[in-house]
C-alpha cells in the first residue's frame, strides 16, 4: 500500500474544511510548532488514485521502488494534479528523475494550480538550468533561476514553498530562488513534463516548512553500526518556533540499568531524565543511551550525566525536543542513513562536538539551543569510510562555543546556515573547513568562513546579540 497521511478517497472534503478553519496553521507539539502532512504518496500501492491526469502517458513502474513515470516525449504538457484548489500556504516536495530532456522542454513540480495552465512551477531544464516560474497560459514569468547540474538518470528533490506572496523554490534542500508574487493565491499541486520523460516519487504536502523525502541509504561499509534502508515516508519539517533559551525541568527519572535502549518506531520519553551510561568523558567507543533503528523518532527526552555517547542513529532518524544536560563523548552520532533531523531541544557542556556525522547524507538541525561547546556539528574527517556529507542549520541559538560547523572540503561537504543567533560570543567561527584524511591520521584545518562552494551563508543570516 502507498503511504498516505489521509485516506485519499475521503480526504479532500476534510482537508478543505481544515484549510478554511485553520488556514493551515501549524500543529503545536511540545515546545515547538511543527507542520502537519496533509497529503503524501509514494506510489507503493501501484496506482494513481487521487491524481487527475492531463496529457501524456503515465504509469506506475519500478525503479528500486514503485514510481510514477511519464514516457511520452512528443507532448509539450503532460501533467498530474492532486489536492485541493482551496490550499493556500503550504510546502510541496517530490523526488524527480529526468529520463530525457528535450530541446525547450522541462521536468517540473507545480504548486497553487487553479487550472490546467495556471500555477507556480519549479522546472529542471536542459543546459543545466533550474527556474522558479509563475505560469498563466502561454505567459511564463521567471521568478528566479540558477545554473546547476541537471542530469538525466539522476534523482533530485524539488520543493516549492508558498506563504502569502512569498514563493520559494528548493533543489535538494537548498533554496535556489525566493520571490514575491501575488499572481496565484491558492490551488492544487502537480507534476509535469514538456517534451521530456521523467519519474516521480515521494510526493508530500505539509502546512509549513519543507519536508525532505528520504531515499534508500547508501551502503555504509566500515560504520560501527549496521546500515539499513530507511523508511520512505517524508521527513519532518524544520522547527518554525524560535529556539528555546532555558532548560526544561525533568518530569521524573528513568534509570538506564540494562544498557543501551533500543528504539524503533516512535519513543516519547515524557520529558523524563534518562541516566546513566559511561564516565562523562571524551573517551571513544562509549555506549549510547539510545540506539535508533532506521526511521525511528525519539522525542521529549532529557539525557542526564553521564550520558555516554548519547544517541546513535543507525539510519534515517528524527530527534525532537531532546536535551543533553552534560554532553559526554557526543550528544548524537549519525551513522548510516541519508537524512537525519534534529528539531528543537538543546545541549551544553560539550568539550568537543555536539553532533558527530560519520555516515553519508544530510543532517538537518533546526530550533536548537547550544551553550558551552566545541562544535555544534562535525563531519567526520578520519572515519574508516569517507563520504560526502552535508548539514543544514537553521533557526538556532548558540553561546560560548568555538565553531558551529566543521566540514571536509576535499570530500565535497557543504554546510548551510540561516537564522543563526549568536549570544555574547562574537568570536565564534561559523564554518570551519578541513581536509579529511584516512582513519588513523588527523584532519588538517585549511580555513573558515563563507565561500559559496562549501560554506553557505551571508551576513544577514547571522545575528549577534
From TrEMBL:
<feature type="signal peptide">
    <location>
        <begin position="1"/>
        <end position="35"/>
    </location>
</feature>
<comment type="similarity">
    <text>Belongs to the polysaccharide lyase 3 family.</text>
</comment>
<dbReference type="Pfam" id="PF06439">
    <property type="entry name" value="3keto-disac_hyd"/>
</dbReference>
<keyword id="KW-0106">Calcium</keyword>
<feature type="region of interest" description="Disordered">
    <location>
        <begin position="206"/>
        <end position="261"/>
    </location>
</feature>
<keyword id="KW-0456">Lyase</keyword>
<feature type="compositionally biased region" description="Pro residues">
    <location>
        <begin position="233"/>
        <end position="247"/>
    </location>
</feature>
<dbReference type="InterPro" id="IPR011050">
    <property type="entry name" value="Pectin_lyase_fold/virulence"/>
</dbReference>
<feature type="domain" description="3-keto-alpha-glucoside-1,2-lyase/3-keto-2-hydroxy-glucal hydratase">
    <location>
        <begin position="43"/>
        <end position="205"/>
    </location>
</feature>
<dbReference type="InterPro" id="IPR004898">
    <property type="entry name" value="Pectate_lyase_PlyH/PlyE-like"/>
</dbReference>
<dbReference type="GO" id="GO:0016787">
    <property type="term" value="F:hydrolase activity"/>
</dbReference>
<feature type="compositionally biased region" description="Low complexity">
    <location>
        <begin position="206"/>
        <end position="232"/>
    </location>
</feature>
<dbReference type="InterPro" id="IPR012334">
    <property type="entry name" value="Pectin_lyas_fold"/>
</dbReference>
<keyword id="KW-0732">Signal</keyword>
<dbReference type="Pfam" id="PF03211">
    <property type="entry name" value="Pectate_lyase"/>
</dbReference>
<protein>
    <recommendedName>
        <fullName>pectate lyase</fullName>
        <ecNumber>4.2.2.2</ecNumber>
    </recommendedName>
</protein>
<dbReference type="InterPro" id="IPR013320">
    <property type="entry name" value="ConA-like_dom_sf"/>
</dbReference>
<dbReference type="GO" id="GO:0045490">
    <property type="term" value="P:pectin catabolic process"/>
</dbReference>
<keyword id="KW-0964">Secreted</keyword>
<dbReference type="GO" id="GO:0030570">
    <property type="term" value="F:pectate lyase activity"/>
</dbReference>
<dbReference type="InterPro" id="IPR010496">
    <property type="entry name" value="AL/BT2_dom"/>
</dbReference>
<dbReference type="GO" id="GO:0005576">
    <property type="term" value="C:extracellular region"/>
</dbReference>
Amino acid at each position: 500500500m502507498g503511504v498516505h497521511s489521509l485516506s485519499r478517497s475521503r480526504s479532500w472534503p476534510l482537508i478543505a474544511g481544515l484549510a478554511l478553519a485553520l488556514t493551515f496553521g501549524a500543529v503545536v507539539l511540545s515546545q515547538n510548532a511543527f507542520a502537519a502532512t496533509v497529503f503524501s504518496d509514494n506510489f507503493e500501492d501501484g496506482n494513481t488514485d487521487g491524481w487527475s491526469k492531463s496529457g501524456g502517458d503515465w504509469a506506475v513502474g519500478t525503479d528500486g521502488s514503485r514510481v510514477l513515470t511519464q514516457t511520452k516525449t512528443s507532448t509539450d504538457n503532460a501533467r498530474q494534479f492532486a489536492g485541493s484548489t482551496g490550499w493556500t500556504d503550504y510546502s510541496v516536495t517530490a523526488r524527480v528523475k529526468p529520463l530525457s530532456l528535450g530541446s525547450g522542454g522541462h521536468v517540473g513540480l507545480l504548486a497553487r494550480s487553479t487550472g490546467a495552465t495556471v500555477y507556480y512551477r519549479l522546472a529542471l531544464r536542459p543546459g543545466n538550468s533550474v527556474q522558479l516560474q509563475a505560469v498563466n497560459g502561454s505567459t511564463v514569468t521567471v521568478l528566479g533561476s540558477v545554473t546547476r547540474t541537471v542530469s538525466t538518470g539522476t534523482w533530485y528533490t524539488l520543493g516549492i514553498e508558498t506563504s502569502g506572496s512569498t514563493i520559494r523554490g528548493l533543489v535538494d534542500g537548498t533554496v535556489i530562488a525566493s520571490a514575491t508574487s501575488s499572481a496565484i493565491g491558492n490551488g492544487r499541486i502537480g507534476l509535469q513534463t514538456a517534451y521530456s520523460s521523467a519519474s516521480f516519487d515521494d510526493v508530500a504536502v505539509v502546512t509549513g516548512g519543507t519536508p525532505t523525502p528520504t531515499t534508500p541509504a547508501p551502503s555504509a561499509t566500515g560504520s560501527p553500526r549496521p546500515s539499513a534502508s530507511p523508511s520512505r515516508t517524508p521527513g519532518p519539517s524544520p522547527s518554525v518556533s524560535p529556539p528555546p533559551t532555558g532548560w526544561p525541568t525533568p518530569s521524573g527519572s528513568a534509570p538506564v540499568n540494562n544498557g543501551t535502549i533500543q528504539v524503533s518506531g516512535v519513543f516519547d520519553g515524557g520529558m523524563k531524565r534518562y541516566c546513566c551510561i559511561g564516565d562523562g568523558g571524551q573517551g571513544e567507543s562509549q555506549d549510547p543511551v539510545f540506539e535508533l533503528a532506521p526511521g525511528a523518532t525519539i522525542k521529549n527526552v532529557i539525557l542526564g550525566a553521564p550520558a555516554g555517547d548519547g544517541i546513535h542513529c543507525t539510519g534515517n532518524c528524527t530527534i525532537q525536543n531532546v536535551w543533553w544536560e552534560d554532553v559526554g563523548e557526543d550528544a548524537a552520532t549519525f551513522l548510516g542513513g541519508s537524512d537525519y533531523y534534529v528539531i528543537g531541544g538543546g545541549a551544553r557542556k560539550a568539550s568537543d562536538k555536539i553532533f558527530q556525522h560519520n555516515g553519508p547524507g544530510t543532517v538537518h538541525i533546526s530550533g536548537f539551543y547550544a551553550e558551552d561547546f566545541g562544535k555544534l556539528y562535525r563531519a567526520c574527517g578520519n572515519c574508516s569510510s569517507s563520504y560526502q556529507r552535508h548539514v543544514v542549520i537553521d533557526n538556532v541559538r548558540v553561546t560560548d562555543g568555538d565553531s558551529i560547523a566543521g566540514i571536509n572540503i576535499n570530500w565535497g561537504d557543504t554546510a548551510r546556515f540561516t537564522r543563526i543567533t549568536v549570544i555574547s560570543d562574537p568570536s565564534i567561527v561559523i564554518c570551519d573547513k578541513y581536509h579529511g584524511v584516512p582513519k588513523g591520521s588527523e584532519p588538517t584545518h585549511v580555513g573558515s568562513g563563507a565561500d559559496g562552494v562549501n560554506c553557505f551563508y551571508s551576513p544577514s543570516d547571522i545575528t549577534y546579540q
